[in-house]
Amino acid sequence: AKDAGRNRYRFFEPEMTVATQARMALEVSLRPALARAEFELHYQPRIDLHTMAPVGMEALIRWNHPERGRVPPQQFIAITEETGLIVPIGRWVLQEACMRTRALMADLGRKIVVSVNVSAGQLGNSGFVDEVREALAQTGLPPDCLELELTESALIEDIEHTASMLRELKRVGVALAVDDFGTGASSLAYLRRFPIDVLKLDRSFVLQKDGNVTTSDFVKAFVDLAHALNMAVVAEGVETEEVLQLLRQARCDQAQGYLLAKPMPLDELRARFTQSAPG
Ligand code: C2E
Ligand code: CA
Ligand code: CA
Ligand code: CA
Questions:
Q1: Is the CB of 119 under 6 A from ligand 1?
Q2: ipTM higher than 0.85?
Q3: What ranges in the chain are assigned the alpha helix state H?
Q4: Per-residue pLDDT tens digits for 113-148
Q5: Distance CA 186, CA 85 (A)
Q6: What is this structure's pTM?
Q7: 3-class SS letters over 217-256
Q8: Cβ neighbours of 118 (radius 10 Å)
Q9: For a pocket test of ligand 1, which of 39, 43, 57, 60 has the largest count of ligand atoms closer than 8 A to its C-beta?
């Protein structure tokens, strides 16, 4: 409502660009998308680099638009953040991921950790910790089977508020991960002020500007430092055998990427977890 005055004439602005029109069209079709059940979650397995067994998975949202087909998250997550739609959509993601993971664990008879992406707009919402508690209580998923992935930019938005919220989430018992580490400006020393359990290394972290893989000594030193700070290291976007070997040599804990598996519907993933079950 506070934007009404500013936006009142926007439909009549002759200089409105094609990009703005496309964005507005997406925004209009996003509003009813949740009620129309157009979202689904795909899951990408996370592999333990010591045993090479799948130990967890990241939930990634997919939007099946009735006319456009599948719209990638890069095209609509930002709009949900600007409009506040991320709050109800994020709540659905959390509930859905917890429910499915609880069912998968019952099928497999073993523990699986699910990672859920959380936007700055969700962290800024004072009811967020209660939403997490509720999702766990309603689905029966044990708290240590849920990990929340936060980006560096979400962490620095309001440091005091974020730090106290993260401490509360730790009391609930969930794990906290920093997503896309290495793309922002923050350092490990800086992150020590937050109760972070996991660092997710961005794909670019192990690649140099010329596209070559960086030295294993560098990655090893970084992983050792993270371990000294009690953080586990997960590499994402692993596409080549060369990078995989480097990460194993550097004693990186886990990895995910197209080399290992693409994101997929849970029914497909269930088969992979079954094949690799120990024993
Ligand atoms: P992200 O959290 O960094 O997720 C990793 C992205 O990398 C995913 O793209 C995944 O499909 C892709 N990926 C996985 N393996 C590889 C690989 O080996 N190489 C390359 N090049 N890419 C790989 P996706 O699914 O398109 O999601 C894009 C972004 O959208 C995510 O980046 C995340 O920031 C956001 N997102 C996705 N789902 C959600 C959600 O439920 N909530 C929120 N708030 N954001 C989400
Ligand atoms: Ca992520
Ligand atoms: Ca990431
Ligand atoms: Ca990313």
A1: yes
A2: yes
A3: 4-7, 18-30, 73-83, 86-108, 120-123, 128-139, 152-156, 159-172, 188-191, 216-228, 241-249, 266-275
A4: 999 999 998 998 889 999 999 999 999 999 999 999
A5: 28
A6: 0.92
A7: HHHHHHHHHHHHCCCEEEECCCCCHHHHHHHHHCCCCEEC
A8: 23
A9: 60
44 lines ligand 1 (CB under 6 A): yes
Q: Name 158's Cβ contacts closer than 8 Å, sequence gap at least 6.
A: 124
Closest residue by Cα to residue 245 from 213, 218, 273: 213
Q: Report strand pairing: 232-235 vs 254-255.
A: parallel
* Smallest CA separation from ligand 1 atom 35, residue: 73
**Position 53: which residue type?**
A
Protein residue with its CA nearest to atom 3 in ligand 1? 180
Decide if 135 contacts 95 (C-beta within 8 A).
yes
Cβ of 138 closer than 6 Å to ligand 1, yes or no, is: no
How many A from CA of 24 to the centre of ligand 4? 24
Angstrom distance (rounded) from CA 181 to CA 183: 6
Look-up of token digits 């090893």: 220
Residue closest by Cα to atom 33 of ligand 1: 117
